[in-house]
């Protein structure tokens, strides 16, 4: 193995085609480090020289478009950068760092053309100042080491041996810097050149790679290549690196699955294979494993043939070029130069055609995904990561290793120990199993019911496999077999029956093939940790997709049953439970400790490698104890002798067995972990020696989100001793290990002596003011909860917005950026923190968002319009305060869920006993019996509810949700125990007094619950109150949207979005839409609300390309500047139309009423008539605002929107001009859209169903569309 360094003068990289050509050339040449000269990129240009292969570029640019040098690093290159020096004139760049633990300095030079002794003197000083290590200097020196052999004149004779001034200065630099010409050292008797000067007709070798003695010792090869697309030849050298035997690993090329021919061939091969091999006599596991080998060979054969076919012409031209080049260098005749240039042009054109196809596919990606709520926009917002290659690691003995194999071996040994710490606890270890059984049997765990067990044990059905397949991301990194999810989704009709058969066979005696349970371990460095230590990496298991699919099926079966198996104290990975439940509960407990002055301790436990340490004997015995059926032992098939191997670039892979742990990356892993953790949490809850917070009949001791465990203890010293013993015992059985030194304890109202005693006894770090838990800081003083959490996040967001301001993101893309990146960060805090937030608190960040959306320029659309949802005529820019209200109201809705399902609801109900928050909030504010000094979280939720009620009418007045008991209007009901049995029968609120439209009777209630004779008296008291206050009409009042949410049996998904949309849609703050009124005034026609909704929907669907869609919104919002507006602003003196019609240039005039524009729209109408073969009425509502036309099918409506959008975009492109666009330009825009839509349909595998593409062909007429077939080949 070697590191390849390439140097090339590119003579300008401002063209996207040339940048793509450079990067593709480097990739094809397998260069690890590239020295690039003459980039001609100035300092202010927003041009990137990186892509997904070459992820790091260190550049020196000039102020003007000249000079410019860059050093590019491949993402797999083991070079670790430590410092950079960039010349302000773009003449050189120095990068220092380490290459396999050896200090290395890279200098890329573009020397002046004219004699410049000062430049070479500066370079000599620079090299001399470098610390000891390898030095490699490369670039265009514009000088030669020896003119006698490194130059050749037009006549073919050598230049006189005398050196020019530039050559002499360069030679002095070489001698004083002790640098060697790598190519000359390895080719002492050869003559070759890197540059041909056409004006002088001479060759020279001015592109060089120079090495000092330390680096020259590692050079194993140096080459001069042909001059192809640049006017310089690229040169390269290869450095020997520590030996590695990393094998080539096959991975299915996703592009093959976009080719209909390949898909058809593969279907035939699969049908043939399974027809010949699938039988009752043959094990399904063997048939399935063998099919992978067969299809792998099938894809390799196709890919190899295509590569040879694609490269054959390029290889022939390169061979001709090399032969002619050598002939011309030896005998530079004019005829030889003509033949050489002809071949060179042909080869360059071939490269450019390949680049054009690549750029077309890239344009398709940006057409569909740019500025959209998608990964492309997310990546553009993310700071460009530093180089992540693992170049060195510290072994257990403290020695630093640098070779890929040695690094992989260190990680292999580390994870072998981690994943096999319980190797002696196999299923046959009787004593261990007995101890596990004793522990589990003495723990009061909830088991599955027989019905649940039967459901879980049913055979796997094909629709179940299909649903699981649809729920998995098909393009994530594959496992060791190389097949990603795209393969399974493309051929699911053939594969699903055999997969279903295999999965069901595993319920019996069938076992998986060993290769199926092999996994690659990808290593992700933990942020802020020492990257030289193996424990500071997060191991992600890349499972084979079929194994992941099986795990997904099992997870989908177990998920609905988790709520009955897992106590509400656990909220992580449990359907219907959320993270904020634990943070709100933690804040409530801190307030309780302060209000009661009870000595308490908040303890956050740090579990060491929690998922990786779970022992399988404990896990499998637990599953039996929980009542999982015997035929659900498919789980065991996943954990029967699995193996793993470290995935590290350039290193050989050594599989090792695994005997404990749940693999991160497996869909089943989090479920198995929370099940394994439940016995510990149950023991903590049930232990009389571990004292939690006692409130009413409840005790709040522990809460957990996966391995993030928080304990609230009221007898800290005694509880800690018993907790320590329990953790030790549980850890010896399950593998769970707590790192007390990394855990945190926050004492609340404990004496200094108690705190000191606890710190010395348990070695736990003590925090006084705040404790970090689940991403928020829980403060010992509840009044500091806001300041400790929200201002730091707002400061970081403002900084991010400033950094993003100059990014090339469109207007709507910026709104999407806020939705995708900013809103989730703040919404997390709005949910997790029960604190009061006012509009003023968010005014600064809301203004910063506005400035980002408008790039610190004039606002073109009112903020209130942007806040509106798209379905209500806006763009959905997040209103942060409204989102805060929605998040708080979502927790008000959660109050109404059964308290047993949510421990924070149980806690807050106990804090307000005998009142209940979900009942009291429906009472008028003066009538609420809740004390004013209530818990801050409850008080804040009530405040937000009351505020929203007054602004958005959340409740009818009076409401059917008003409680009957603890209602001051019904004095007997203030003593709740007297009415407890009536309440248990379902009589709680005004709305409950009716059954089937009639008043409920005592007999009705007796049928629902066991009522006592005394309850009849209470019922009559209640009946009297109902009749006296005339509550029947109130009970008959229909529930509004918020009341329906609160009365639902369960909390619906997407609750915050539902509430936010309702608040925004019903907000009194929006007022009338001014742009609607202006459109109606201009077009002298009023539209109904339904018609405007159709226009809003059509605008949002005008294109899948957000950049194109943006024009539709700009038209809707009347974005464009007009002569009238410019004159009013004082920018111009005339308000007449730009198109010289002599009329006033209003908005509607420029877009519709201008005589020249009317003629343009008439042409567009005739074009549409020729497409649809029927008259298309030219109507401004349809042509400008895409109002759906009656009588057109959905595909025709889509095509109509496409053509009209292209026509509007063409007109907008000539906005400030007196020239109108031609129909040729309109057709060109439509043709480009057609090409992008067809390519997108191919990628999405919807091409046969894309009906509008067939219709689109009618648009072209005499205009010739560029053929799509070259793009596909």
Automatic annotation (TrEMBL):
One of its GO terms (molecular function) is catalytic activity. CDD domains: L1-EN, RT_nLTR_like. Pfam families: Exo_endo_phos, RVT_1. PROSITE patterns: RT_POL. Residues 505-778 form the Reverse transcriptase domain. PANTHER family: REVERSE TRANSCRIPTASE DOMAIN-CONTAINING PROTEIN-RELATED. This is Reverse transcriptase domain-containing protein. The lineage of its organism: Eukaryota, Metazoa, Chordata, Craniata, Vertebrata.
């Amino acid at each position: 193995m070697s590191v390849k360094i390439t140097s090339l003068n590119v003579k300008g990289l401002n063209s996207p085609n040339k940048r793509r050509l450079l990067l593709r050339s480097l990739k094809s040449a397998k260069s690890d480090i590239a020295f690039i000269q003459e980039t001609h990129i100035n300092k202010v240009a927003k041009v990137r020289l990186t892509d997904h292969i070459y992820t790091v570029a260190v550049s020196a640019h000039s102020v003007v478009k000249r000079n410019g040098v860059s050093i590019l690093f491949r993402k797999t290159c083991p070079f670790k950068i430590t410092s950079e020096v960039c010349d302000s004139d773009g003449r050189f760049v120095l990068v220092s760092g380490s290459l396999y633990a050896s200090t290395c300095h890279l200098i890329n030079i573009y020397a002046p053309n004219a004699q410049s002794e000062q430049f070479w003197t500066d370079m000599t000083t620079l090299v001399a100042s470098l610390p000891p290590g390898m030095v490699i200097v490369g670039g265009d020196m514009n000088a030669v080491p020896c003119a006698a052999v490194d130059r050749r004149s037009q006549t073919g004779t050598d230049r006189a041996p005398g050196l020019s001034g530039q050559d002499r200065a360069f030679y002095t630099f070489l001698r004083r810097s002790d640098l060697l010409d790598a190519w000359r050292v390895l080719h002492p008797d050869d003559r070759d050149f890197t540059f041909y000067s056409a004006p002088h007709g001479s060759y020279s070798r001015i592109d060089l790679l120079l090495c000092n003695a330390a680096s020259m010792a590692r050079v194993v090869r140096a080459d001069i290549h042909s001059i192809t697309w640049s006017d310089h030849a690229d040169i390269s050298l290869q450095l020997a690196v520590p030996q590695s035997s990393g094998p080539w690993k096959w991975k299915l090329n996703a592009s093959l699955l976009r080719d209909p021919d390949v898909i058809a061939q593969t279907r035939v091969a699969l049908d043939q294979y399974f027809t010949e091999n699938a039988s009752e006599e043959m094990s399904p596991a063997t048939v399935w494993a063998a099919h992978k080998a067969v299809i792998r060979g099938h894809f390799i054969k196709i890919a190899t043939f295509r590569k040879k076919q694609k490269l054959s012409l390029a290889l022939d031209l390169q061979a001709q070029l090399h032969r002619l080049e050598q002939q011309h260098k030896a005998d530079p005749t004019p005829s030889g130069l003509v033949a050489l240039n002809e071949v060179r042009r042909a080869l360059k054109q071939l490269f450019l055609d390949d680049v054009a196809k690549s750029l077309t596919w890239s344009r398709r990606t940006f057409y569909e995904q740019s500025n959209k709520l998608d990964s492309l926009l997310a990546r553009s917002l993310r700071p460009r990561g530093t180089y992540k290659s693992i170049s060195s690691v510290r072994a257990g003995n403290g020695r630093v290793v640098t070779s890929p194999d040695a690094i992989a071996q260190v990680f292999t040994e580390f994870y072998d120990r981690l994943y096999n710490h319980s190797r002696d606890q196999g299923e046959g270890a009787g004593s261990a199993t007995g101890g596990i059984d004793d522990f589990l049997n003495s723990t009061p765990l909830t088991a599955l019911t027989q019905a649940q067990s039967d459901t879980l044990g049913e055979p796997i059905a094909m629709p179940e496999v299909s649903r699981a397949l649809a729920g998995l991301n098909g393009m994530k990194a594959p496992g060791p077999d190389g097949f990603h999810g795209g393969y399974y989704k493309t051929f699911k009709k053939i594969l699903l029956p055999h997969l279903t058969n295999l999965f069901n066979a595993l319920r019996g005696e069938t076992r998986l093939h060993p290769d199926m349970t092999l996994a690659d371990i990808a290593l992700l460095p933990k942020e802020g940790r020492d990257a030289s230590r193996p424990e500071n990496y997060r191991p992600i298991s890349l499972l084979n997709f079929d194994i992941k699919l099986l795990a997904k099926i099992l997870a989908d079966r177990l998920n609905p049953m988790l709520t009955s198996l897992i106590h509400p104290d656990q909220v992580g990975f449990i359907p219907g439970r959320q993270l904020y439940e634990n943070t709100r509960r933690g804040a409530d407990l801190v307030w309780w400790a302060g209000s009661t002055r009870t000595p308490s301790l908040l303890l956050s436990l740090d579990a060491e490698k929690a998922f990786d340490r779970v022992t399988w004997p404990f896990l499998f015995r637990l599953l039996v104890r929980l009542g999982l059926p015997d035929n659900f032992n498919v789980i065991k098939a996943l954990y029967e002798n699995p193996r793993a191997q470290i995935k590290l670039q350039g290193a050989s892979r050594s599989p090792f067995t695994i005997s404990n742990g749940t693999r991160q990356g497996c869909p089943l892993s989090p479920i198995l972990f929370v099940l394994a953790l439940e016995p510990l949490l149950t023991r903590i809850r049930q232990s009389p020696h571990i004292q939690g917070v006692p409130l009413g009949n409840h005790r709040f001791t522990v809460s957990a989100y996966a391995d993030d465990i928080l304990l609230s203890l009221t007898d800290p010293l005694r509880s800690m001793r018993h907790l320590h013993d329990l953790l030790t015992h549980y850890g010896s059985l399950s593998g769970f290990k707590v790192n007390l030194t990394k855990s945190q304890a926050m004492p609340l109202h404990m004496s200094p002596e108690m705190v000191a005693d606890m710190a010395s006894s348990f070695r736990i770090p003590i925090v006084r003011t705040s404790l970090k838990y689940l991403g928020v800081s829980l403060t010992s003083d509840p009044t500091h909860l806001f300041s400790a959490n929200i201002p730091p996040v707002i400061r970081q967001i403002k900084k991010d917005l400033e950094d993003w301001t100059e990014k090339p993101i469109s207007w709507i893309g910026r709104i999407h950026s806020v939705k995708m990146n900013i809103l989730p960060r703040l919404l997390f805090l709005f949910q997790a923190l029960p604190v009061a937030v006012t509009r003023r608190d968010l005014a600064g960040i809301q203004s910063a968002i506005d400035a980002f959306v408008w790039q610190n320029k004039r606002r073109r659309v009112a903020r209130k319009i942007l806040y509106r949802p798209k379905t209500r005529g806006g763009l959905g820019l997040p209103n942060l305060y409204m989102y805060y209200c929605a998040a708080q109201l979502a927790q008000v809705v959660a109050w109404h869920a059964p308290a047993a399902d949510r421990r924070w609801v149980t806690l807050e109900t106990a804090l307000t006993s005998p009142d209940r928050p979900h009942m009291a909030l429906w009472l008028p504010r003066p009538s609420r019996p809740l004390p004013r000094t209530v818990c801050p979280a409850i008080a804040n939720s009530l405040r937000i509810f009351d505020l929203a009620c007054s602004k958005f009418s959340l409740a009818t007045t009076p409401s059917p949700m008003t409680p009957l008991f603890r209602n001051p209007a019904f004095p007997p009901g203030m003593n709740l125990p007297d009415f407890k049995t009536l309440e248990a029968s379902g009589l709680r609120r005004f709305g409950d007094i009716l059954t089937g439209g009639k008043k409920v009777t005592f007999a009705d209630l007796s049928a629902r619950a066991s009522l006592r004779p005394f309850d009849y008296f209470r019922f009559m008291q209640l009946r009297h109150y109902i009749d006296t206050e005339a509550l029947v009409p109130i009970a008959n009042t229909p529930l509004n949207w918020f009341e329906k949410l609160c009365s639902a049996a369960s909390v619906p998904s997407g609750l915050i979005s539902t509430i936010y949309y309702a608040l925004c849609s019903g907000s009194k703050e929006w007022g009338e839409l001014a742009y609607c009124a202006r459109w109606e005034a201009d077009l002298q026609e009023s539209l109904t609300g339904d018609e405007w909704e159709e226009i809003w929907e059509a605008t949002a669907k005008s294109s899948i390309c957000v950049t194109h869609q943006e024009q539709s919104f700009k038209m809707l919002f009347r974005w464009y500047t007009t002569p009238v507006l410019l004159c009013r602003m004082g920018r111009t003196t005339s308000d007449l139309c730009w198109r010289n019609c002599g009329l006033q240039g209003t908005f509607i005039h420029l877009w519709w009423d201008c005589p020249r524009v009317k003629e343009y729209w008439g042409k567009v109408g005739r074009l549409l008539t020729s497409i649809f073969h029927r008259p298309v009425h030219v109507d401004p509502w349809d042509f400008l605002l895409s109002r759906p036309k009656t009588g057109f099918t959905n595909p025709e409506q889509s095509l109509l929107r496409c053509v009209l959008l292209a026509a509007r975009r063409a007109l907008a492109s000539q906005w400030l001009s007196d020239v109108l666009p031609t129909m040729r330009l309109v057709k060109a825009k439509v043709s480009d859209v057609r090409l992008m839509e067809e390519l997108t349909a191919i990628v999405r595998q919807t091409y046969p169903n894309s009906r509008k593409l067939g219709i689109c062909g009618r648009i072209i007429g005499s205009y010739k569309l560029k053929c799509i077939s070259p793009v596909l080949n």
